[in-house]
Hints:
Family: Belongs to the LysR transcriptional regulatory family.
InterPro entries: LysR_HTH_N (IPR000847), LysR_subst-bd (IPR005119), WH-like_DNA-bd_sf (IPR036388), WH_DNA-bd_sf (IPR036390)
Pfam families: HTH_1 (PF00126), LysR_substrate (PF03466)
CATH architecture of the largest domain: 3-Layer(aba) Sandwich
Oligomer: single chain
Mean pLDDT: 90
GO molecular function, one term: DNA-binding transcription factor activity
Helix content: 40-55%
Keywords: DNA-binding, Transcription, Transcription regulation
Amino acid sequence: MSNISIKQLETFRTVMRSGSVTLAAKTLCRTQPAISAMLVGLEKELGFSLFERHKGRLVPKPEAYFLLEETDAILERLSRSTQLMAEVKNLTRGKLRIACMPAAALFFMPHVIAEFVKDRPEVEVSMMMRSSTMVQDWIASQQYDIGYSELPKDRDSFHVEPIHLEGVVALHIDHPLATKEVITPKDLDNEPLATLFTRHAASEHLRVLFEEHNVKYRPRFELQNYISGFEFVEQKLCACICDPISAASYKHYKGGQGNVIFRRFAPVITFDHAILTPAHKPMSQLAKLFAENIKRSVVSFVAVS
């Protein structure tokens, strides 16, 4: 039975539904001998006859009706699969598995996903929020299609698309420095700050930068992400030098009604993020398109900060 073809099944179904070889031939735009030969070939592959031949007519045996049910199921599944693969080709169906660091997972990545799937109702998305280190490990182990994290060290197990973002300063709207367009380390001398935890590269960078400008670096609140720190800024407890995605996330959340404002910081401090994709797992066309959308969306998203 391994040599039974789709054409044989389609021919058999058409004969069963039309009731004759003559009508089946007209329906399929083929000759009657070709239809008869197709049925004979099918019976040969099955090893038994499906019809009794009586005065030039085909009379279906019980086995023919059983095969008809199976044939309907097979051809319907094939038709559905063909349709699904066409949708996959057209990037309107599929599944994305995304791993994302906290700073981008709360507002930025959902924003990108929502825009991407808006006109793709059959695309399913799974997004998990984890630390950058965990995101990198997940992509390295080929478990997820796309990762968004802080810029990692080079690894053979994933590809990296760097994204470089200029940091900004979060201040309460009534803070004396709020009138300035650009904030410097000197302006923040001995100013209480909300920062990332001490061993984080961004915090170490700030500490060195402040030392180079001979001003006191004063981290009052050490946190896992900057978004948490904006509450302390709102309560006039500190300032915060942060990445623009976190700043834009705050503005999206507050709808422009919050008491925290953001100012440029000089000298420029860069927050290095990255889009990660598995190196040993072929990417679907859907995942490739989504990765491209992330990079484009960063620009428009942080513009509000």
